[in-house]
Specification:
alpha+beta; 6 helices; 6-stranded mixed β-sheet
Length: 222
């Protein structure tokens, strides 16, 4: 087997986080990893074409809708309200081309932290909307996918994307460990210079990104 960034660093990350060893599978045909690990919060591998999204979609909306109903009793009582929340999140994604990535990222972070409210309570009382359960981590869904095709100004394919409740919070880029001329810096360049400019919507919900060539790993925000 020829060593490259896919079957060394990228597959190693997938194996470490999800337990799925793509190198051990015939033709790397794994579609999806185990759904549950008991009461623990674990990353689950899902092949990107099983996320049921269009090439331009940032959010895995089926996962997000389920999480909104699971974490918000007022949305669970009227599931159509989940679409209203998602509509507001989509609006922030769209504004990135006008307000810039940092400002859009800051606005989305308010939603992630549960600081935003909507009139979903009794008598239209405003209630906080939870996108993530920070108290009981097992109430969230944790999905890892790779070779994630995304189209905005161009089509780009980040190596690793980590979703929490259908929201892409972490993007990772891996480079080969066997070429001395290649380092983590090349992966960081791809994220910061290439991806953040070509597909900025993907980084609006971003908490951090990571770059590695298997020997060193560096992380940073937008």
């Amino acid at each position: 087997m020829t060593f490259n960034e896919l079957n060394t660093v990228e597959h190693f990350i997938i194996h470490q986080l999800t337990g799925v060893n793509l190198n051990a599978l015939q033709g790397n045909t794994a579609k999806e990893g185990p759904v549950s690990y008991g009461d623990e919060a674990k990353w689950r591998y899902i092949q990107p074409d099983l996320l049921h999204r269009e090439l331009t979609d940032v959010l895995a909306e089926n996962e997000l809708k389920e999480a909104l109903c699971r974490l918000n009793p007022d949305i669970s009582a009227q599931p159509d309200r989940a679409e209203e929340v998602i509509h507001k999140l989509r609006a922030i994604l769209i504004t990135v081309n006008n307000v810039g990535l940092v400002r859009a990222n800051q606005e989305f972070a308010r939603w992630l932290r549960g600081e935003m409210t909507l009139p979903f309570g009794k008598n239209n009382q405003h209630v906080a909307i939870r996108l993530i359960d920070f108290e009981e981590l097992k109430n969230n869904s944790f999905i890892l996918t790779h070779q994630f095709r995304m189209q905005s100004r161009e089509v780009k394919i980040p190596d690793i994307v980590l979703f929490v409740n259908g929201i892409p919070l972490v993007v990772g880029e891996a480079k080969t460990p066997v070429r001395p001329a290649i380092s983590w810096f090349d992966a960081a360049h791809d994220i910061n210079v290439v991806y953040e400019n070509a597909i900025p919507q993907l980084f609006v919900p971003n908490v951090f990104s990571f770059a590695t060539e298997g020997k060193e790993i560096f992380i940073g925000g937008v």
